[in-house]
Amino acid sequence: VQLVESGGGLVQPGGSLRLSCAASGVTFSRYYMSWYRQAPGKERELVAGITSDGGGKNYAMSVKGRFTISKDNAKNAVYLEMNSLKPEDTAMYYCRASWIMEYWGKGTLVTVSS
Fold it and tell me: CA angle 68-70-75, nearest 5°?
């Protein structure tokens, strides 16, 4: 099983990024997918989650209205569209797949700075 995140980078405050997570080795359509992030010196926190069929989504209050999670079962991928980025969004972002077991990617770094 492999989850590979991409799309991170340096962006100015107010900017946008789109993170992608490509999954392999799993029956992707059965998995609840989520994005977590961990800032330096802080605990890992849930950013957004999406049900196996993509019909249900939830967001952390800190990102609601700015971030959008989506899932493409045909492409075995989950995405996180991030808009109106703030310096406090700076963190390593991780993709997680959960069903009977859970799997994590290695993360992609997002830095929001002027």
Answer: 150
Residue 92 Cα distances to 23, 66, 67, angstroms: 18, 18, 16
Q: Which residues, 6+ apart, have CB-to-CB distance to 59 below 8 Å?
A: 47, 48, 67, 69
- Using one digit for the tens of pLDDT, what is the confidence trace for 31-63? 999 999 999 999 999 999 999 999 999 999 999
DSSP secondary structure letter of residue 104: E
Spatial contact of 32 and 52, defined as CB atoms under 8 Å apart: yes
Contact 19, 80 (CB under 8 A): yes
> Which tens digits make up the pLDDT trace of 68-114?
999 999 999 999 999 999 999 999 999 999 999 999 999 999 999 99
Burial label for 19, CB within 10 Å (0-12, 13-18, 19+), is buried
